[in-house]
Design brief:
The structure holds two protein chains of two kinds.
Chain A: E1 9-10, E2 21-22, E3 35-41, E4 44-50, H1 68-79, E5 81-90, H2 91-102, E6 106-109, H3 110-116, E7 123-132, H4 133-141, E8 146-151, E9 154-159, H5 171-197, H6 211-214, H7 216-230, H8 234-253, H9 267-282, H10 285-318, H11 322-334, H12 338-347, H13 360-363, H14 369-377, H15 388-393, H16 401-406
Helix pairs in contact in A: 5-8, 7-9, 8-9, 10-11, 10-12
Chain B: H1 2-21, E1 45-47, E2 52-55, H2 57-65, H3 72-90, H4 94-121, E3 127-128, H5 129-148, H6 156-164, H7 167-200, H8 204-217, H9 228-237, H10 241-245, H11 250-264, H12 266-272
Antiparallel strand pairs in B: 1-2, 2-3
Helix pairs in contact in B: 1-4, 2-5, 3-4, 4-5, 4-6, 7-8, 9-11
Classes of the chains: A alpha/beta, B mainly alpha.
């Protein structure tokens, strides 16, 4: 059943500007086969895709690795936390606004609008603070029965298809799905343990595990954290659990990587964001405020701990004064990049801990000339890929027997 | 050209050493002008006939210095930084500074002569793969020495520092060292609590209380290293049960018990590695563990 959305939808975006639209019929097409122009008009980027029917190729026929880099950049942009504040911005202007925030083309499928009966003039109002761009976009598009997909270095907004036209799954069904996943995980564990007992060199094939099963421990721990922070009532807790499972499942469902890993290495951030998002929709404002405050303090503590440990490593090289340590500690913890956290947590106690590529602008104002010289010559590490259990628990996994084996 | 500079520096060092021995005050070459940026150059490994390898100077640099940016000039900059810090803290006289600088240059010279010996061994032309492996292995102690620092305990620099400083200057140096160690130990504890937080889901108040408890009731190691986390966990397992349990919820306490019991496996490794506390004592034996940690079901995992 389809219906027009006439009421303002909660979304955000302040920039005026024209829209970029293109017909992206079908589940995937090769943007690189089209002519894409990004024009800056009145401060907003307009992505125009000129495509004839013959130019739209299925994604699987496009150059195989051509857009991988672009896709990765878009995914990174979607994972970056941003503040979004828009008031009554028409959907057609929202698209170029997103293109600007994303740093790449965003295409709104006209056919998708037709199918969902969404008017491009529909006004969007939304406000997000420090939420991953992708999560915010999903929250904005979901009520319109639209969704975004990364395609060939750009973002394609299209309708969600027939599945979401159905009524939302009742809580009982959601629970059934959850139980099925739990059972599947148990079966994996039992099989694995049986093989281990026989002395067979067995490995659980991570690819056969669903993403949700893989992050099960992470999700359970995060829900425990929320429970301690907010003390929800039993009914609230049940709703929170159902919503969180569903949202995390959705967030990870379409994840794909070149190496076939079913879950992104930053699954911890995804789970935390999605659980917080579920908290916002299921708990009272006071509980939400408590949870957000605790989550913010947790992040601040972690950043400070990481900054201090980085300074321990740097101190061995640069011989910092107490005043420099103090200043740098503040500067680093306030500008800490989550991408540095795991490498630092995993290696900072080594003889020479890995030094993340902290921008010079952050370090050098606090160093003297000789220290600047030494700092510039220190080898820095780029982006490293760690296993999920390392990234999820910062190198100190829980020792619960069941969960350990699932992992 | 570099070799000429090295020999020149060697001569300069010898002359200066004589001058210091004679109560002279020869000036050492410690100017900032020496600190020229090095542009990284690609590694070069020349393969001759099948199975034969020729090792170039750049290979040696890569083996020993690891990264081109950590070459001899970087080491000299490190020495200057170290001397400058001691001058700033202890208000050294010019003569003291000169002695320290010369001693540091002696350490550098000694290290470079070891590198030169390795270079000489590699000049024998084409070699077989097994010889290549042997030479590579013989470069690793040099790399380890560089990573551990050329001016630490046992170095000429360190010995000279001990004999050159007056008691009040030594006290200032020790105070700086204590501050540094305190900062470092706090950082390690906070990182451990952040790691525990990832599995225990602590509230902010719990985190702060836990950090304070560990800071108050445990001791730092004499030498920090890879085992810092386990050393703290082992010490936590010796704390009275109530002091930890009272900070945590039942579920959190259960998981922490598992972690503490698991850390006990590391005691033997810690002792074998020679880890000692700052007062010289060793980590306690397994029998000293708080029995509450080793309740049935919480035995260390094999």
């Amino acid at each position: 059943m389809r219906r027009a959305h006439s009421s303002p939808v909660k979304t955000d975006i302040p920039l005026p500007g024209p829209t970029s639209t293109a017909q992206g019929r079908g589940r995937g097409f090769d943007l690189t086969a089209c002519q894409v122009q990004v024009v800056n008009i009145c401060g907003a980027f307009l992505a125009i895709v000129l495509a004839g029917p013959g130019m739209l190729l299925p994604a699987d026929q496009a150059g195989p690795r051509r857009a991988n880099h672009g896709n990765e950049a878009v995914r990174q942009a979607l994972a970056a936390k941003v503040d979004i504040d828009v008031l009554n911005l028409p959907l057609r202007e929202f698209v170029p606004y997103m293109a600007k925030r994303l740093g790449g083309p965003v295409v709104l499928g006209k056919a998708a609008l037709r199918r969902t009966e969404v008017n491009p003039a529909l006004e969007i109002t939304a406000s997000f603070k420090q939420v991953p761009l992708g999560v915010a976009l999903r929250q904005i598009l979901r009520p319109l029965k639209l969704e975004h997909r990364v395609v060939d270095g750009g973002l394609l907004i299209e309708d969600v298809g027939e599945v979401l036209d159905e009524l939302p799954r009742p809580a009982t069904q959601s629970r059934v799905g959850q139980v099925a996943l739990e059972r599947q995980a148990w079966e994996q564990v039992l099989r694995f343990n049986r093989q281990k007992a026989k002395g067979i060199d067995a490995l659980v094939d991570l690819k056969v595990l669903t993403p949700l099963v893989q992050v099960r421990t992470l999700l359970r721990l995060e829900l425990d954290f929320v429970r301690r922070a907010c003390q929800p009532r039993p009914k609230q807790e049940q709703r929170l659990q159902d919503t969180a499972w569903q949202q995390v499942g959705e967030a990870l469902a379409n994840w794909q990587t070149d190496n076939g890993a079913p879950v992104p290495s930053y699954a911890r951030e995804v789970v935390q964001d999605e659980v917080l998002s579920a908290v916002r929709t299921t708990l009272s404002p006071a509980q939400v405020a408590r949870c957000e405050a605790e989550a913010a303090k947790r992040k601040a503590f972690r950043n400070l701990a990481c900054a201090r440990n980085l300074l321990v490593t740097l101190d061995g090289e640069l011989l910092l004064t107490p005043k420099q340590r103090e200043e740098l500690c503040t500067a680093l913890s306030q500008n800490w990049d989550d991408a540095w956290t795991v490498s630092l947590a995993m290696t900072s106690t080594n003889e020479r801990g890995l030094i993340p590529a902290v921008p010079d602008e952050l370090m050098m104002p606090h160093l003297d000339a000789l220290q600047c010289l030494l700092w510039r010559r220190l080898p820095k590490t780029g982006k490293l890929i760690w296993r999920l259990d390392q990234t999820a628990f910062l190198g100190l996994p829980p020792l619960d027997a069941d969960d350990l084996d699932v992992r | 050209m570099n070799r000429i500079h090295r020999y020149a520096r060697r001569l300069g060092f010898a002359a200066a050493l004589v001058a210091v021995a004679g109560m002279g005050a020869a000036r050492a070459n410690g100017d900032d002008d020496d600190l020229v940026e090095i542009k990284p150059q690609p590694r070069q490994m020349v393969f001759r006939a099948v199975g034969q390898i020729q090792i170039s100077d750049r290979n040696i640099d890569a083996w020993v210095y690891g990264n081109q940016s950590r070459g001899p000039e970087w080491i000299e900059a490190s020495l200057k930084q170290r001397v400058d810090e001691i001058v700033r803290i202890c208000r050294l006289t010019d003569v003291q500074k000169e002695k320290l600088t010369l001693a540091g240059k002696g350490d550098i010279q000694h290290f470079e002569s070891r590198v030169d010996e390795l270079r000489a061994k590699c000049k024998s032309g084409k070699i077989q793969a097994d010889q290549y492996n042997q030479l590579y292995q013989s470069s690793q102690p040099l790399r380890a020495a560089l990573q551990q620092g050329l001016f630490g305990g046992g170095s000429l620099f360190h010995k000279t520092l001990l004999t050159t400083l007056r008691p009040e200057q030594t006290a200032l140096c020790e105070q700086t060292d204590r501050d540094r160690r305190t900062f470092r130990y706090r950082a390690r504890i906070e990182l451990l609590v952040a790691q525990l937080d990832a599995i225990l889901g602590l509230r902010d108040e719990q985190r702060r209380q836990l950090v304070q408890l560990i800071l108050d009731k445990t001791r730092p190691p004499r030498v920090f290293g890879q085992s810092d986390r386990f050393l703290v966990l082992v010490q936590m397992s010796h704390l009275p049960e109530e002091s930890l349990k009272s900070l945590l919820d039942p579920g959190q306490w259960r998981e922490l018990q598992r972690q503490l019991a698991n850390a006990q496996r590391m005691v033997r490794v810690l002792k074998q590695s020679g880890v000692v506390f700052d007062d010289g004592t060793e980590p306690d034996k397994r029998g000293d563990v708080n029995p509450a940690i080793l309740v049935p079901g919480n035995r260390p995992r094999s």
